[in-house]
User: Fold these one by one.
Assistant:
Number 1:
Amino acid sequence: MDKTPIDKIIKDLDISASEMRRLVKSFTSEMRRGLSGARSSLKMIPTYASQPTGEETGEFIALDLGGTNFRILSLELKGEGRIGKPAIMSFKLGQKEISGGENNLFDFIASRLKLFLSKNDLLGAKHFLGFTFSFPVKQTGIATGDLVCWTKGFSAKGVIGKDVVRLLNEALIRCGVGNLNISAMLNDTVGTLAAESYEDRNCDIGVIIGTGTNACYSETLSNISGIKNSGSASGRMIINIEWGNFDKLKKTRFDLEVDEMSSNPGEQILEKMVSGMYLGQIAESVIRQTIASPIRGFTTEHMSRIESDVSKDLSNTGRVLKSLGVKTSTLKVRAEVLSICKAVSSRGARIVAACLGAIILKMDPKISSSHTIAIDGTVYEKHPTFAKNIRAGLKGLFGRKASRVKLVLTKDGSGIGAAITAAAASNNRR
């Protein structure tokens, strides 16, 4: 196969201003369809959670389960957006819990909750608990939801199709823990929004851009099909967009190759252009098909190291390539690899900017208010230009009004946000 000139590849990966505007329209249309219950690549899942007011007070417990490691924390909310220093314990699940029966998993979690409560003198009084469960769930209430399928290597038997909050409650009873009320279940995106929203009332969007990617935002109840009474006093509800599945994107042959080799071909198209799991794979595909390099195992972390290279001879890029099997490389090759990495990451950031622009315009068509976007994840935090390119994309869409949109790195929101969501849910219940 003849090699395609690098300049043409870079152009194919570029997202022009007109393409950004097309993406905004397509994403908005998919949002509306999903909210109405029509067929859409965006699931637009009601979470039954509303934004905290910032005035919630008291001590709350959070359980953050998103992979083989999980955290338990207690958090004092002091009102006026003030949060005390949390007490945190981390635990690791073994293969017995990950792939055994339902009791193995939830009994282990319950026993660690009991240990945490005991060590922090919290076994006596009643406490509300927020449960971050970052797996696909069909939620039917703020504290009820059935597991749709396992991801991230989990295969615990007897859990799919069951209410995971009920399973945890039953395990707590078997473990002799009777002072926890699970008042909220959420995913890490909602937790990120809640964590920042407690301190900043303008925060109405939460985003994860890490190994995977997703977003949520605050929607008016009347716009959500099938929701009659959520118990929300605000008249709004946080919607889990599940934006990783957005499929109205133009794919290059490199995207098609990465998609075909994935475990879920044809699905999670946006995620495969934006998230840390796939950005490196796309760059590797481009490098192999254009520079004819034997490179293998190229990751997003390698991209970050190369895009941070400011040496005149791009020696750091050469060292990265050498570690991946390219023993020698010319300056021309190193420069081309750098250009490819920049093009792939810039495209990902501009896709994110277009989708964020659509969400903001859905909530506020004239951008007359201020909006804070809480973002967590290693790609956003550690990639040298990703955050800057998102801001540039928003400025291209909104012009001077982009100054009304603030992007904030919100670390560990999945844990802190769970406790805050539990507080907001318990207040609504009362």
Number 2:
Amino acid sequence: MDWQEVSGNWVLIPPHPKAIIHFLGGAFVATAPQVTYRLLLEHLGSQGYAVIATPFVNTLDHSAIAKSVLQSFDRTIDELRTKSILKRRYLPTYGIGHSMGSKLHLLIGSLFPVDRAGNVLISFNNFAARDAIPFVEQLNFNPGFNVEFTPSPTETNNLIAKGYQVRRNLLVKFTKDTIDQTSPLTELLQKRFPDMVTPLTLAGNHLTPLGQDISWRSGKEFTPFDAIGQWVKQEIYREFNQLKSVVLRWLNPLSSP
């Protein structure tokens, strides 16, 4: 099972897929999701999920990005069906997003009529541009020009509160993630869909979903520093493996643990 580029998306199709996953990554690592999220996405593919990862370039207009990635996803689905790569006419579709990718799935579910069996929203954040973009306040803009995302954080929350259509949601935050805003999102979604929103806090940090592929080479003699390096590597993979297990269990609650 190898990655294919189809209509601008990166695609993994197992022999008999049981569902489709539309994946959107974080703002600064989303241009090559098949590389930056390879370990996570290939694991999902190995478990029978067709993965469609949509690259995007971050701009201030998040509504436009949401529309663009949805259109790109739809084009890829059409091409896969036309070429009979996806043979079943209907498969449930889940959105999985990390960081900004979570915000985009929330905007897609709030602004457009989509059919989603559920969304997995990891490390959501909804900062204003001045907090999300380094040095934005130092840029020499006209004083009357307001640099802000579209929609703004407040507008985003209002859109979610009034229009978000995807009922079943898994919300994941990490214990050492200092830019996570999952807690207020949880309150918003639980008001909209009581008993359909599952919040979880896992060990890890904002980069845990990338499954950092760390290689630690010991010297000729095994030293205390080698022991520390191996321990760090084990801890990182333990956190990453826990995330993989949680996501798979939520996607298919009837599967074996």
Number 3:
Amino acid sequence: MLLPKFDFLEPATLAEACEIMAEYRAKAKVIAGGTDLMVNMKRKLISPERLVSISRIEELKKLDSSSNALKIGSCFTAADIASSELIETKWGALCAGARALGSPLIRNLATIGGNLVSARPAADLPPPLMAYGAKVVLKSSSGERVVSLDNFFQGGGLTEIAPDEILTEIRIDAMQPYSGAGYSNLGVRSACDCNLVNVASFILLDGPGGRIKNAKIVMGCVGPTPVRAASAEKLLVGETPTDALFAKAGEAAGKECKPRGFAESRASAEYKKDMVAALTEKTLAVAHRQAMEQ
């Protein structure tokens, strides 16, 4: 399939990119790796008049943990995340999500910002980022705003980002002592971003060998946006971590998700519910193990 005609713009600075988006707004699309955008253009799902490339803007490729929190530039690639010892040490579930994303070739091109802005229900990075409580920085020529990922996704392919805004940075707070997270996905085939379901879980303990003080479970590919398993989270808080408790929370998460009628289903609703339960139990165990090691 051929691409529709478009003008290609390559601003040298973020300020210049913001000016271009302010001028053309919905008539322009930002491109970094292009692994989702180019496919959608070939399929004639979108046909922007202009593509604004931000892939060479150096400030969007940074990785900063100077304040113990983590700041990732939106053009940081999935391959860079997957191989980062810094991220692996404290935010290992994000590395796991990056390693699960597509093939090596795709990971070399795909950016963390693009994976979020494309808002694909089957995307690998949103669940672990949401489990860590991540926020995104949206910048325009008139200023910037910070939005929690919990409020960023509005539907399949739809986000909070305005037509003149550019996602420039992802922020994750410093990991608290005795906290950890896990991520796991189930796909149709290897080396292809074709998830049937994915889950990320986070646990915070009140001390070594203590009870669960806070928990998050984020389910992907069971609806148009990532979904929090609120009842399963509530079930965990205040309890002593055990395999039996994690299995019970998995069952609750499976019952809570409602994948029926979901366009990107690729599997029956019953199967997805069962797999959510299994992956929730698995990721909670990983999160607990990491929390004990922190």
